Hints:
Shape: globular
CATH class of the largest domain: Alpha Beta
CATH topology of the largest domain: Peroxisomal Thiolase, Chain A, domain 1
Strand order of the largest sheet: 5-4-6-7-1-8-13-12-11
Number of helices: 11
Structural class: alpha+beta
Amino acid sequence: MSCYITxxxxxxxxxxxxxxxxxxxxxxxxxxxxxxSGIRERRWVTSEQxxxxxxxxxxxxxxxxxxxxxxxxxxxxxxxLSPDYQVPGxxxxxxxxxxxxRSVPAVDLRVGCAAILYSLQxxxxxIESGAAGCCVCFGAEAQSKGLALxxxxxxxxxxxxxxxxxxxxxxxxxxxxxxxxPTLRMDDVIIKSDGRFxxxxxxxxxxxxxxxxxxxxxxxxxxxxRGSMNGRTVILQAVRRLADVxxxxxxxxxxxLDQVDLIIPHQANMNLLRSLGKQLALPPERIVTNxxxxxxxxxxxxxxxxxxxxxxKRFLPGARALILAFGAGFTWGAALCTVPVEKTIDSE
Length: 348
């Protein structure tokens, strides 16, 4: 049984935050941020906005794009590292806010920037097994509310933006097909993890590995509730793992990278994207990028890159797309998709 992405949506906060706005507080120059990350600006939520608000907007946009209503959702898969609350997860909250959703399963995944791939693998399994006919997967982040805007956290705080992306995954293609509302057939998904690097990209608190309390004053004083990263390890491992899995999935499906029309990577850092392109000998125009305008949106990142390509009408009949993502854990993977070439409205 085939599996298809038939709708794509996004939500971005209105507030645009430039490098100039945050550089002084971080103790660095605006040019340093762009030179080391490729980021010129990012979006941040207001104090009144929660991550679930972005997720709901993105999900509704994806459903509208797919020509469906909330009542037709069979399964909701939510991905975030910045949930509304510690408990419950974000997916049930989004389900509540999506008026008309039935009492369907609503689950959370915490796999960082690899969110889109893990959610696609699960949605594909649910659909191919007959357990669901329509899954909505979303990645949403409001990381700005957890950033320390001081020099001690400059290497991380300069990177992150807020936003959400969502996709509709179904067991049948959009009917009829047309170039303005594309369908992507999921040909293959590979997901992997390596827990040996789990502490190289981490937020330690709250957590039960922190002594007698999962969060106390000393944890806050030591900034254990803030993110920390071994940047060199992350970028080296990300480039290596993503290049390897890109080759693995194309070889497994009997195609070459030259036959892939679009590379849709999560947007961690422009230097990482350039290194990946060089490693795979890919021209820049085939790699979808928005890191310069949106920053690193973590679990929403690859969803938003996919939405960008979708909105720009880059999915032509017969085109192949390769989604690549690498996140905390370490988790990573790839998804190979093809635009079906059946008769379209435009050709009738």
